[in-house]
Amino acid sequence: MTSNRIVIISQDCLNIVNDNHIQNELLEYLSKILNIIENGLKNGDYIQLELHINPILKRKSVLTFPNLKENINWKFTVYLRLLKFIHTQIIKGEIISKRQLYYADVKLFKKQTIVDECLDNIALSFNLSIEKLNIIASQKGLIYGELSIDNYKISKSIGSTLIPVINLSSSLSDSKIIFNNNENSSPDSIIILEKDAILSGLINIEKSNKHLTQKFNNSILITARGYPDRLTKHFINILTIKFNKCKIYGYFDSDVYGFMIALEYSSKPMNNNTSLPCVSNMIIKGAKLFDNNVKYSDLIPLNDKDISTSMSLLNRLKTYDDTTLDSLNSSIKNLQRSLYFGFKRELKIVDIN
């Protein structure tokens, strides 16, 4: 005789004391519900999957399997497959991107958007970020240089490449990192760029005239393409620990948003489990509002949002400690000039020095 088995995906199902216990609780609960589902399938029972996507608004999605509607059966199978993937990734202690998940079973998932939607629903139901499920949205950051991380090779010959997927809880001791095919070699500097357009420009210049970028021949260039994601920050942090004697430079737009991106690297905690920033010793350089090379046509008038965001940031900076403020002194003055004169300026190749 068949029976109904109810499987609930909700934050109320997890007894999370603190962040350090999240994955243990999640692993235990996933093991439990997957066991319920698998036993139910063997017994021919009806299985009701409830996703409490928004407990405050009491919004939930309910899928009953088996169902007369083929689309419901397919959607249930998609969720089951994803729950198994999450369970496996947590056991292995490895992370995987949404894109990699999609390609793991293209026939079932059909479209990337299906994977994105279902993963987001699972994360929302547990009230966790997808990164807590050992999943990242995608590999966002780009790197250019001669580097190998374990068996992953990064070479200038192929241009910029995506930053490799590494475990967000890993440390330097978990990976073997070699620069320029020499275990004893170290880069002269690590260059962090706000935009990929600048990285592409530098690469093109190097290929056409190596003398112009000779100073970067022995450097590693990285961009997160805007605000850095956790993977890019974690990767940079591991590099700076490995090559702890090389200089770290950051190049950003001369506006409040460029400054905020710089702070993501130099001052903001890398994640919820640490108060340490990605790279506290980064030297912030980049576009200057007024310079010998700056033309009036390079200046962009501030809008109301730029002004209010700048004022808000300057107020927040008052809470920073004196040591941090001293290191940010040049950037703060540049932002104050921007407000005073009512202009901002984007980073250009000529600013990279």
Would you kindly provide a brief summary of this structure?
The protein is an alpha/beta fold. It is built from eleven helices and 16 strands.
Mean pLDDT: 86
The CATH architecture name of the largest domain reads 3-Layer(aba) Sandwich
Please, how many helices? 11
Classify the helix fraction into a percent range.
25-40%
Number of domains: 2
Strand-and-helix sequence, N→C? Answer: EHEEHEHHHEEEEEEEHEHEHEEHHHE
The tally of strands reads 16
* CATH fold name of the largest domain: Dna Topoisomerase Vi A Subunit, Chain: A, domain 2
The outline comes out as elongated
Strand content: 15-25%
Query: Helices and strands: which structural class?
Result: alpha/beta
Main CATH class of the largest domain: Alpha Beta
Largest sheet: 6 strands, mixed
CA(first)-CA(last) distance: 76 Å
Q: What radius of gyration results from the CA coordinates? A: 24 Å
Unreliable stretches: none
GO cellular component, one term: nuclear chromosome
EC number: 5.6.2.2
GO biological process, one term: reciprocal meiotic recombination
Catalytic activity: ATP-dependent breakage, passage and rejoining of double-stranded DNA
